[in-house]
Queue: 4 jobs
Job 1
Amino acid sequence: MPRVHPYLVLTTVALLWAGNAIAGKMAAGHISPMLLTLVRWFFATLLVAPFALPHVRADWPVIRPRLVYLSILGAVGFASFNAIFYLAANYTTAINITIEQSAMPLVVFLANFVLFRMRVAWLQLVGFALTLVGVAVTTANGDLSTLLSLDLNRGDALMMLAVLFYGGYTVALRFKPQIHWLSTIFVLSSASLAVSFVYAVIEFALGLTQLPDFQGVAAALYTVIFPSLIAQSLYIRGVEMIGPNRANLFINLVPVFGALLAVMIVGEELHLFHVVALVCVLGGITLAERGARSRRA
């Protein structure tokens, strides 16, 4: 992949992932979530295979002893995260989904601190805390008393579970073997395809499968090309360039793009508490990134 600025790489990732939330919302009621996940990773794996297989063959001596580990990464970060993500879209708004994704940096920070004692600057702590406030306000729909009573919307609760999955995946990427990025995408996508098939079979057995109509097909096509292939590849590259803690902060741009797209495309209403949450999120990413710079200096 040509050398580009990591900020541009990760901002593009945020935009494409914001579009994924919109696609998931538009898919709700038009294609069942597990079938959507299966379609996404089937075609993503199929499309990347011709470009990736030569690199996979060259990297196979490195991949083979780490195949189980890479497969778990694909199962958790690709298949399970997206299955829960699309299921959540059936019960909550696209704006909520994108803002709640901003909790991922906090998960990454806590995991890195607990497992690896990774040091952080005090500005990073303030930034993480401010981000958490924004996520809490969104999850509670502006009424923090719902958090104290644990009276959460089902979709918001599912989205927070998805955040835990992807945060764990991001931390685990630090142990990824040094192989070509296309090899990584293909192996992880293949594992995701296998797990997605199992999820789709369970959905079918429960009688919950819904075949796609035109809108469902359009949403599925977007998920195949943009968040699956392009964004995942760029995200892996971004983590390699500036590390998981700093790279994950750019996910905080997802709610900004997501809110704009949700209002323009889906016609959702932007409430005052959404604006407050967005201010917290943007303030959090700014402070945390300044803290990371000062610590390196």
Job 2
Amino acid sequence: MNDAGVQEGVVVLGDHVQGLGIIRCFGRKKIPVYLVNDKGLCVGRFSRFLTGFLKSPEFNDEQGLVSYLMDIGKRKGLHKFLIIPTNDLAVRIVSKNKEILSSIYTISTPNLDAIELIYNKRRTFELAKRLGVPIPNTIFPSSVENLDTLLSDVSYPLIIKGSIGHIFYKTTGTKLFVVNSKEEILDFYQKYKGSIQPSDTIIQELIDGPTENVHSFCSFFKEGQVYAWWSGKKIRAHPMLYGTATLAESVHDPSLLEYGSRLLNAMGYYGVSEIEFKLDPRDGVFKLLEMNARTWLWVSLAIRCGVDLPYILYSDMIKNETITVDSFKVDIKWYHFYTDSAMVLREILNSRMSIKEYLSSVKGEKELAVFSTDDPLPFIAETLLLPYLWLTR
């Protein structure tokens, strides 16, 4: 119990289906859980397991968000409640304001030095390169003028992505661009001149191979040690080759444990993270794609498989009990019906998939991203909100 005599609970900062998964994780355990989001319409707020929904200022308004969190913490008696952010911007805000927020809340988010190594993807890849963690062939441009030298020995296609993903996405409307020549690279920088600097981007080889080659290593890391871990792979994504998962599956992949531990240890990391790798068919080596200092979209699959990372974090921070998990169920799938259906329809219309292949891909035990028999309203809400969600994302 906290100072007000209330059981310490959780504040989920953000939403989308991972927010819903976290809400259900704690709500089913009778642990109070609040959702703080800057959008009024979101699937998580309709969960019967939610203690309360709180509409905040926009996350882009850092000081406004922090002031709001401090205010509701005092008014609603959320002392020692654990804040769990669900997106990169929220992670950074919590980390930057850790000292003031800690006067009310429990903050598991690492200090800013560690977060910046993850938030800025350029720094992530530079660190991985120093540590000997395999990465795709990567160029760090500083200006358009030095591209001639940097591109002298590359193989196309390449991708251009932002050092800070959400800023790049907000400007361009996409996660990355695939380019097939130097001219296309120059056209990109010319198009976004004034809004995107070359020094704020990464140019990287596009690793060939199917979506199934993208694997995630997810863990609870503390004091230089992995206490609990889980791994899974994407089956389909949006966009198909380099997007977020729409269908995924649990797989036991201990080969990622060494690389993941090496990165987390060098950062002095604490808490839950996701590190994404892709198997390069040319040399059979997993290579780093990105890292998230938080839970990820399909975290409910890990929970279903027996690695309840949000609760493991809560247990360590709130109950001072460290839980160790080194085995989990495999061959269980995570399925987001609406986003996957849209991708499948596109693949079928373009003759890249048959209906038989689709039906085969969704066979077996599944963790549904939104629908749940004990919590049906979020799926009903998602169905009704589809036009709004499509436009806002």
Job 3
Amino acid sequence: MVSHPYVLLALTTLFWGGNAVAGKLAAGHVSPMLLTLMRWTFACCLMAPFAIAHVRAEWPIIRRHLVRLFLLGACGFTLFNASLYLALNYTTAINATIEQSSMPLVVFVLNFLLFRTRVTPYQVAGFGLTLVGVALTASHGDVTTLLTLSLNVGDAIMLFGVLVYGAYTVALRVKPDLSWQSTIFCLSVAAFLASILAAGIEYSLGNTIWPDLTGTSAALYTAIFPALIAQSLYIKGVEAIGPNRANLFVNLVPIYGAGLAVLILGETLEFYHLLALAFVIGGILLAERGGRKTWADSAKNAGPSHPG
């Protein structure tokens, strides 16, 4: 069995990169909110046998923090994934993965604004580079469109999802002290409950698309690989080499995502995509270089900084 942390973390980011591709494949085969509901239904069922014992042992803590856990799961898991799958009905998987790669620096900015986390010149420069990369992606290589606000609606929805997940990650500072099995399971159950509401609203508006084989397969992939296996591998990787070094592997997500989108979906990799990737990854690496201790402390308090 493969156990080297670099391999575990490389597989983690590969599965996360495939999440956007699966969502794009599902477009037109299952509606976004129903896909989100199916994802968390499958995830809860698959995870339950491994988590129930931990939940029972830690139930007194869980019961005291039910509202907090529900809000974390509803926002971080349901609202983010619903935004991703909805966005992929209007934009490309390449765009979505590049825009998601700004997540670590969104967390950095929110930590600075809310908790006055120390800022270094490297972090400021890195944040600036990442903004350039995201702007290039969202504007499809023509940043002048930002001045007229004529952005693709899918890119706008994806950027909203990035902000939501960034806020969720910062909010994990106040999550109760539970085992990772109980934490992920409780958040997944909360996501399942919130997804019922979202799917119900979608149905009432007449926008539900019932899943065919492609839609069901995409939902199974998102539940098994990004939601369960990747999160477990990420935790093992963090335990082996520490959160700061493990967090650098998140930079592989847009690379994997773009590659899979080209190979599986036949999307075109434009020059501005390559330029945006260079800006985003360079910005994150620059910020990491200037604030490793700060980021390590933040990671210990906040947990994983990328959605699964």
Job 4
Amino acid sequence: MLQFTKVGQDYPEKRAAGDRAADFAEISTSFVVETAEEQSSRCSQCGVPYCSTHCPLHNHIPDWLRLTAEGRLREAYELSNATSTMPEICGRICPQDRLCEGNCVIEFSGHGAVTIGSVEKFITDTAWEKGWVEPLAPGPDRGQSIGVIGAGPAGLTVAELLRVQGYEVHVYDRHDRAGGLLTYGIPGFKLEKPVVMRRVDRLAQGGIVFHQSFEVGRDATLDELRARHDAIVIATGVYKPRAIKAPGVGADGVIEALDYLTASNRKGFGDAVPAWDDGSLNALGKRVVVVGGGDTAMDCVRTAIRQGAASVRCLYRRDKANMPGSQREVKNAEEEGVEFVWLSAPEAFHDTGGTVSGVQVSRMRLGAPDPSGRRTPEVDPGMGERIDADLVIKALGFDAEDLPRLFGSPDLAVTRWGTLRVDHKTMMTSLDGVFAAGDIVRGASLVVWAVRDGRDLAERMHAYLKAKAATKLLEAA
């Protein structure tokens, strides 16, 4: 260990921008064993590891880096898997530059962070290849069942951990495949779909029952599900797109980011997607403008490049230093041909015959900092322009849907943001035996936080269900 003064920082090689922009395969190769060991040996083995502290899962990062450096890959995988239900997924899509790697001590010293995410991906992919990933083994049957609403990372984490405890687990999801945004929201060039599907298959083989294309409120009310199960988990995520209030926003060709990404991912699965085939959700040959600066916007601009757009521009109201998305993603997008128009916001949308033909853009300037510390964008008078566009994708983030109405459960309490109100000690909602985790509680956030919430909730639900079973035994006696 402590080789950071002798061994330079190295990431897996990225494919050439022109090559990777022609397909939806992941853009980077994986480490070979020797490189993974060498890069892991750069770790300084801090007494207080900031990388672990700033990881929502508090992964034992220095420990599995040391095991990797020593060639003990199976032990490294087992330690990584001890705190995360999907380490190879987090290794691919976590914004390590803002979390573990961004807080690496040797990064502060100017030597460049240990490439933690790439090592995490390598050791878990190796575990799958070598057959070290063991089947999900349920514990002794407890005679109790839970229903999980939502098959995203939070819901799948709860489902796995409670199945291991011996509970009967049923997962209800509106889509025809499990995985939530992992499956339909994140493009393959960041997360290839077989990586997600093998996790889902492992859960199904472990006895978790998936009810797909199932909408709560349509196929069963929340109360009906409560009657079927001893406890319920709501882990739906947040899917309501934030709106743009500007003239012309209703023109054809002004579309939602999630509709666009879902259509692209479905096409990758080989599904029939009429809106993709007729061009409504397809960027081929079009001048594309994406509005937003987060990770979803980066997914959209890079997808449009791969679909063969004539040009792709991204409008963001702040500057590059103040954008919420990963700087690595911005760099990847720029390499692939995306043009960023910083300090700009849509003022209106032009149309020709009801179809969008351009975006009237206001130029912005940065004013005083807001409560988050970022400087507030203000319109710079007289500095607007028109940008021609055939397809405009709105990627401004997501809010919670009206679940009390959708689920037919008016007593389900929500916050002023529409997220579910929970007791943060028990993670229970206003309804007894109904718990919630992930983005539907905290708002749109990271996959790693959803996994953390699912892990925490499994512990609390286990305690609740044991107490419930004990009460029944007392009553029966």
